[in-house]
Amino acid sequence: MSNAGTILRVDLTDRRIEKEPTSSYVRDYIGGLSIGTKIFWDGVPPNVTALSPKNMLIFSTGPLTGTLLGNKSVVITKSPLYTNQTIGNTGMGGQFPSEMKFAGYDHIVITGKSETPVYLYIDNDEVEIKDAKHLWGLDVYETQTRLKEELKDPDVQIACIGPAGENLVAFALILHDINNTASKGGHGAVMGSKNLKAVAVRGTKGLKIADPEAFMSLWRQFYEYYTTGRGRYAFKTIHEQGVGGQADACVKKDVMAWGYFDSYVVPSPKKEEQTSDFLDRYLVGHIGCAFCPAQCHQNLDVAGTGGGVTCWAYAGFRWLVKNKDQKLWWKCHQLCQRYGMEINEAAGITAWLMKLYELGIITAADTDGIPMEWGSEKACITAIEKMARREGFGELLANGTVPAAQKIGRDSINQAVQQRNKQVYPAVGMPIGGSAGIYQAPAASEVWVNPPSADIHGVYPWLAPALGVSEEEAEKIVSEWASEHAERTTGYRDSWEEFNYEHFADYAVVNEAAIAACDISGHCDWLSDRIAHYGIWWSPEENAKAISAATGMNCTAEMLLDAHRRRRLLELTHIKLSERAFGELEPIPFKMLMPKPDGQFKGAFLDIEKIPQVTNRYYEIMGIDPWTHLPKREELERLGLKDVADMLDNLEEKAAALDETPVEATPVKSPKRRKGKK
Ligand code: SF4
């Protein structure tokens, strides 16, 4: 029914195209992220490097994708950004995921490497690997325009890479349409390593809903909740401002990093420096993913810099680099976008360079004669262009922070605010308590460990106008919603608070499951219990009911959560085995251990004695051995993964069998530094 029914496998080395039914995976893994992870587990040995032809690039949709209740995909691959080349997943919305389903495919699995640049063209049942030499070097917008002209089809949906992906920049992204990205983890570089410029899909088959009456009844509940229920405040706010209003709130409440985390107090922010002012001036419309009534992306037309759309990239190239000129931010945003490069990563690395320059660890001679001065337009633009093209000092930076620090030396690594070679998001991104313990349990995507309490304390002014109350009242309401949700799901009202080291892991487990249930079903996790503190709702139970109505299978929340547990344990096991080939995960970075210098959390510091308590509690709930960090046999057997338990019992044997020299990309190793306590 609402599953399209087919997995498309394409090997670019021998140009083999195969199709297989999705059905054999559905019972245990349901769809989306969970099936995609199982395909990855079966197909990619842990010691394969991210840029090896043996790596898989998997576009996975869920049973709700392409229906009124879903529009998302996740893209799964080994990540060239993460320090030890582990599995990474990142969501991508827009029209592309639904079009995949309409063409008949739940998952597209790409392996191998073409000798010359190609693109994949899928027109319903017809699948072709086509020449893309003429597209190589074009930016992401030019590529899509050219392909639509060439295919004589303005409705074809395209996911592609820009020059950053072609140049294997470790934080290159995949972009679809104007602003839908698979952005976290360097997935664009994996696509580039396969000489794959684009995937173009056209589907006209539609989908069937098994029980339209039950499905529409759920959709009405969903719609009413967001138009007349508690969700209407956040719904209105994310439609009108997207994440931009959140950025303003973070500045106002002193949780936005200024000058690469040296401070959390942005000096005297003026009206014209606020995102809301920028939106007032340049907003021309709202767009978003297929069928979604929120349409949360802002379409801007900025005189002199050009039009474009943004979603969550409001912070990069602003306060972190001490830039208050929003037009410069927009210029950097558009440039990163065109190159197909993740803006927050590029901004974080640039800000780190500026910090190193201030400290005298680097000079202009290290950056091709460009002084890396705070807020400098020349420094920002040059850094972006050089990173994307791997030119000059850009070559030093294009593999991410940790490899660059290895070359720069001189305490540069201790100035970096990164985790596993990924820069930390400047708006409340630095863990302030329990989330540091959750970071220690490695995940394919870090999204779910964003510190919810810092988020809550920072963001409440964002909702005050829609709630029609003062900021103080808004804080009480938002905190109450968080507490209600925490009590209902974990039994502890304050488990969402970062400083509740005892029960923070309980909340993290629930949050992770809420996101995973969406990534499995294809529903947007922005409109889910993941952010229940904004009054937003859609739990694994609703996802399960919607899957049942859409597919006709009898899906329960327990089945959905078990599908999530299976994929999580496979993912963690894969990460642990990757560590054997590429080195252990890093300890908590030095800068994260420092007390916050100012702002709302002034003086707060990570209690290193208590962090293992959080990590171990997470492992305990998830059925993972806290000593080996590997899944326990009884949990694996409960989930029907006895084969994995048997393999882990013979891990040494298995490791020997996997003793294959890593190919292609050089594995990234962390320099030696002080270890976090365990
Ligand atoms: S709320 Fe989610 S599905 Fe809707 S437009 Fe925004 S990102 Fe897309």
Can you walk me through this structure?
The chain is built from 25 helices and 17 strands. The longest helix is centred in the C-terminal third of the chain and has 26 residues. It has a 6-stranded mixed beta sheet, sandwiched between helices. A 6-stranded mixed beta sheet has the order 8-7-12-9-10-11, with helices on both faces. Helix 8 crosses helix 17. The N and C termini lie far apart (48 Å). The chain folds into 3 domains: 197 residues, Aldehyde ferredoxin oxidoreductase, N-terminal domain (Aldehyde Ferredoxin Oxidoreductase,  A, domain 1); 131 residues, Aldehyde Ferredoxin Oxidoreductase Protein, subunit A, domain 2 (Orthogonal Bundle); 210 residues, Aldehyde Ferredoxin Oxidoreductase Protein, subunit A, domain 3 (Orthogonal Bundle), CATH 1.10.599. It is globular. It is of the alpha+beta class and 678 residues long. The protein binds iron/sulfur cluster. Iron/sulfur cluster binds next to loops.
The residue ranges in which pLDDT falls below 50 over 5 or more consecutive positions are 659-678
What is the global morphology?
Answer: globular
In the sheet with the most strands, the strands line up as: 2-1-6-3-4-5
Task: Give the helix tally.
Answer: 25
Largest sheet: 6 strands, mixed
Strand fraction band?
5-15%
Percentage of residues in helical conformation: 40-55%
CATH topology of the largest domain: Aldehyde Ferredoxin Oxidoreductase Protein, subunit A, domain 3
What is the count of structural domains? 3
| Termini Cα gap | 48 Å
Mean pLDDT: 90
In CATH, what is the class of the largest domain?
Mainly Alpha
The CATH architecture assignment of the largest domain turns out to be Orthogonal Bundle
Rg, alpha carbons? 23 Å
Strand segment tally: 17
Question: What kind of assembly state do the chains in view correspond to?
Answer: single chain
Broad structural category: alpha+beta
Which ions, cofactors or small ligands are bound in this entry?
iron/sulfur cluster
